[in-house]
Amino acid sequence: MSASLPYVLILYYSRQGATRAMAERLAAGVESLRGIEARLRTVPPVSPTCEAVDPEIPDEGAIYASLDDLRHCAGLAIGSPTRFGNMAAPLKHFLDGTSELWLGGALIDKPATAFTSTSSLHGGQESTLLTMLVPLLHHGMVYAGLPYSEIELMETSSGGTPYGATHLAGKRSDRPLDEHERLLTQAQGRRLARLALALSAMPRGDRS
């Protein structure tokens, strides 16, 4: 990764690998544009115990996110499996710790989006995305969903919403992304990257 290029932070939590697969496809969409990169980061699980027992670096996949990853991004995508129509607790826990960035307005006018995966077709995909955008709006970010110019939105029989990309993982959470889901997730990354490049080129004082 080049230190000089702007980047889209793709921040996710994944238990069975479905959300991670979406994050990787979204990163491919970001990096299909020249002049911007994708930075994949995850968050540690949370535990009802008070003692930290997880390693500082995960055994596999993306490394854990820091506030600086968030502070310096040109755009943000957050992803989580659905938990009763809402994001999973580990991602919510991380976002709850971003008040320092909120106080400094670090994320104002940066584009953001969200993505999710569920075991069942009507398992709360859209409500999860809608609740995930709430903290992004509190940070003053510009939310970017998926427009219906992406024809797969009209053709999919599994995942895909105008609020963001979704995936139907199946009752064993082992169903891979199908073609429509891959195309929509990649399109979401591509759109976010395009907006990030456009907004990062604007002087901050002109974003009003």
Mean pLDDT: 92
Strand fraction equals: 15-25%
Based on CA atoms alone, the radius of gyration comes out at 16 Å
In this structure, how is the largest beta sheet organized?
7 strands, mixed
Domain Flavodoxin-like: 8-192
Family: Belongs to the WrbA family.
Pfam families: FMN_red
Enzyme class: oxidoreductase
What's this, in brief?
This protein is of the alpha/beta class and 208 residues long.
How does this model look, in words?
Keywords: Flavoprotein, FMN, Oxidoreductase. It is an enzyme of class 1 (oxidoreductase). The protein has 208 residues and is an alpha/beta fold. The chain is 35% helix and 17% strand. Strands 1, 2, 3, 4, 5, 6 and 7 form a seven-stranded mixed β-sheet that branches. It is globular. The mean pLDDT is 92.
Q: What are its keywords?
A:
alpha/beta; 7-stranded mixed sheet; 7 helices
Helices and strands in order:
Blueprint: E1 7-12, H1 18-30, E2 37-42, H2 67-71, E3 75-83, E4 86-87, H3 89-96, H4 99-104, E5 111-118, H5 125-138, E6 142-143, H6 152-155, E7 166-168, H7 179-200
Cofactor: FMN
InterPro entries: Flavodoxin/NO_synth (IPR008254), Flavodoxin_CS (IPR001226), Flavoprotein-like_sf (IPR029039), Flavoprotein_WrbA-like (IPR010089), FMN_Rdtase-like_dom (IPR005025)
GO molecular function: NAD(P)H dehydrogenase (quinone) activity
